[in-house]
Structure formats: structure tokens, C-alpha cells
Design goal:
Elements: H1 2-12, H2 37-48, E1 73-77, E2 80-82, H3 90-100, H4 104-124, E3 132-136, H5 141-147, H6 151-163, E4 169-170, E5 172-173, H7 185-195, E6 196-197, H8 200-203, E7 210-214, E8 217-218, H9 222-231, E9 238-242, E10 245-247
Parallel strand pairs: 1-9, 2-10, 3-4, 3-7, 7-9, 8-10
Antiparallel strand pairs: 5-6
Length: about 250
């Protein structure tokens, strides 16, 4: 039913490439598509580019950044590196599209791109999708009102569908606080740890589970570290961070 609805939607509203804006040429395809053939080649090349922190292809690097291991995050899965100050390049354009405009096609495409690495990491940690729980790092209420959606929630829901997992667990984001991208590393850390809180009734069944923490991008790692720290009292067996991109210039520092 969902595939039929997706194909009908594509017929009525032909999807455009998330990077260059050209109409995609496969309106009836059931597979998630968000990039044209030319941009997909460039996207795949960015996934194979060497990571700044370890020298492996970016999509193969699972090294958590900064304080993530200290807060219980065992791995960080990502697809590409991006440069937040630049709009050019396929990776950068995909990230800005993800942040600026809600797109079910783009979320489904990115979920399909991330799923194989998540499966692989679960196996390496001795875990299974049945024992895993998705949790997203919520966008600030101000940002969500301004844009009309929460991109991390959308990505998390798409991953839930792609992985065939149960409904994701919701954390809460306190009101107030400052915008992360306007802060330095230490300020980001302090702001993030005061911004997020776990909801007890949502987290009661996390004991012994593998938590998959989802965010759109990671810059300093403060957001996912704060979320992992707030979930620690519920005794998950392990925590995996998942994002679409990390900050290329630093790559060791959201």
C-alpha cells in the first residue's frame, strides 16, 4: 500500500533531485530516490572520500567523536562529510535540503543509505534489530516552528520503516537554550546537556536494549553525547550514534 501511494504521489508531484533540482526520471520506481543519476555518482564519491579522522572511506568509518565514548556511544555511523559554511557540492546541498524543507523522498533515501551500515554494526556488537530501539535528538521548538518540521524525527521515522523496527522513542527538548550552531565547542556541550531530557515512561523498556541515537548532522558530538548521558540511567546494553553527515573541517567535534 505504501509503495502504491509513493508511486501515485510521484506521478502527481514528480520528485526533483535534492541536490540540483532537476526532475527525476523514474516516477514509477518503488525504490526511494532523491538524487538524479549525475548527482548520485557524486554522492557515492563523497561516501568513498577518505575520512579526516581515520583515513578510511567516510561511510566505513564508525569512530565516535570527542566525548561520545565517555557517554556510552560505541560507534558513529555516517554517510558523508559536509562543510556547513558552503552551499555547493552534492553532500552540502543534500544536508541543507534535509534541514530546510521536509521531504519524505529524501528521508526515505537517506534511511535506505544508512540501513546496511546499521545492520552491520548491530551484528558486530552482537545485537539484532529486534533488540534495538530508535531514539531521535529533537530539534528546538523554535526551529521546529520556524521550519514546520523536525528533520531528525523524520529521518528516525524513515529508519524505523526501513529497518522494520518498532516506533521510535521520543526524548524531550526543554524550552529556552541557545542555537547550537552559534556556539563554541564547550558552550555547545553545556547547552546540549541542559537542553535534553529523557521521558521516563518512554524509556522504561530500554534496559538491555541497543539504542540507536539519530541526528541529522554531527559537529562536536555534544547533542548525541547529551542524549546518551540522559539515557544511561535506563541501562541500555549499548548505544550507536547515527547521522547523515559530520562536519568535514573539524570532524571531531552538533
Amino acid at each position: 500500500m505504501k509503495k502504491s501511494f509513493r508511486m501515485l504521489r510521484r506521478l502527481l508531484f514528480p520528485p526533483k533531485c535534492a541536490a540540483c533540482g532537476v526532475l527525476l526520471d523514474d516516477a514509477f520506481s518503488a525504490a526511494p530516490r532523491a538524487l538524479c543519476a549525475a548527482c548520485l555518482v557524486k554522492w557515492d564519491a563523497q561516501k568513498e572520500a577518505l575520512c579526516h579522522c581515520c583515513g578510511e572511506p567516510v561511510a566505513d568509518c564508525k569512530r565516535p567523536v570527542n566525548a561520545m565514548p565517555r557517554h556510552g556511544i560505541d560507534a558513529l555511523i555516517k554517510l558523508v562529510e559536509y562543510e556547513p559554511q558552503k552551499r555547493g557540492g552534492v553532500g552540502n546541498r543534500v544536508i541543507f535540503k534535509l534541514k530546510d524543507k521536509e521531504s519524505a523522498e529524501l528521508q526515505a533515501f537517506l534511511a535506505a543509505e544508512l540501513a546496511p551500515a546499521i545492520y552491520k554494526q548491530l551484528v558486530e556488537l552482537g545485537q539484532t534489530p529486534e533488540n534495538a530501539v530508535l531514539v531521535w535528538a529533537p530539534r528546538s521548538k523554535k526551529a521546529e516552528r520556524a521550519r514546520g518540521f523536525d528533520q531528525s524525527r523524520g529521518l528516525c521515522m524513515a529508519l524505523s520503516h526501513e529497518l522494520g523496527m518498532q516506533k521510535p522513542v521520543k526524548m524531550i527538548r526543554r524550552t529556552g537554550g541557545r542555537v547550537q550552531k552559534m556556539l563554541g565547542e564547550e558552550q555547545r556541550r553545556q547547552n546540549a546537556f541542559s537542553a535534553f531530557e529523557a521521558v521516563p515512561e518512554h524509556c522504561a523498556d530500554l534496559k538491555g536494549k541497543c539504542v540507536i541515537l539519530v541526528d541529522d548532522v554531527v559537529t562536536t558530538g555534544s547533542t548525541l553525547s547529551a542524549c546518551a548521558a540522559k539515557l544511561r540511567p535506563y541501562k541500555p546494553a549499548t548505544v550507536i550514534g547515527v547521522c547523515v553527515a559530520t562536519d568535514a573541517p573539524q570532524n571531531n567535534q552538533t
